[in-house]
Amino acid sequence: MNTSRPRTFGGRFLLLAAFVVPLLAHAAPATTIDVHRDANCGCCSKWIAYLKDNGFQVNDHVEENMSAVKARLGVPGALASCHTGVVNGKFVEGHVPAQEITELARRTDLVGVAAPGMPMGSPGMEVPGHANAYQVLGLTHSGETQVVADYPAR
């Protein structure tokens, strides 16, 4: 004779909850990025959509004077692109991939990262059949640039 009690839906739910709830409690909150852009920039909107698709919480700021924003944030002219993001006080200039933005939080040696210009094939600059090689550069506290990542042509 089987004396065990049959499992009920409620019992299965409680068992599942016992495993799932602790995992959810440890899930990392979305990284917030403030994106400053010109109102007429189409690729900026595409980059914002890319960031959202990659789990970022985006605060979109339409600016009248992007040069002033870049100067205030310390973005050197040689690293400039069309839009500028800010994560935890560090700048993210141009079409930087999500992986490098996430890594920036761990890089205490950098004040920001940039994908200078508007590299074809970078996030927000995708064109089927066209992807140029590009680099993501980091700016150190002393003002030196270093290669953070290489993205080959595809």
What can you see in these coordinates?
There is one protein chain. The chain is α/β, with parallel strands linked by helices and 154 residues long. The chain has a single domain (32-151), classed as Glutaredoxin (3-Layer(aba) Sandwich). It has helices spanning 9-25, 42-53, 66-73, 98-104, and strands at 32-38, 57-63, 84-87, 90-94, 110-115, 134-140, 145-151. The protein has a seven-stranded mixed β-sheet, sandwiched between helices. Strand 3 (84-87) and strand 4 (90-94) form a beta hairpin. The radius of gyration is 21 Å and the shape is globular. Residues 9-18 and 20-27 have low confidence and may be disordered.
For CATH, the homologous superfamily is named as Glutaredoxin
The unreliable regions are 9-18, 20-27
Quick one: biggest sheet? 7 strands, mixed
Question: Ends: how far apart?
Answer: 67 Å
Q: DSSP strand (E) fraction?
A: 25-35%
CATH fold topology: Glutaredoxin
Q: Architecture, according to CATH?
A: 3-Layer(aba) Sandwich
Query: What is the N-to-C succession of helices and strands?
Result: HEHEHEEHEEE
Helix content: 25-40%
- Output the CATH class name: Alpha Beta
Q: Count every beta strand, where a strand is a DSSP E run of 2 or more residues.
A: 7
Give the class from helix and strand content and strand pairing.
alpha/beta
Please give the domain count.
1
Question: What's the arrangement of strands in the largest beta sheet?
Answer: 2-1-3-4-5-6-7
- Give the C-alpha Rg: 21 Å
Shape: globular
Q: Number of helical runs?
A: 4
Residue-averaged pLDDT? 87
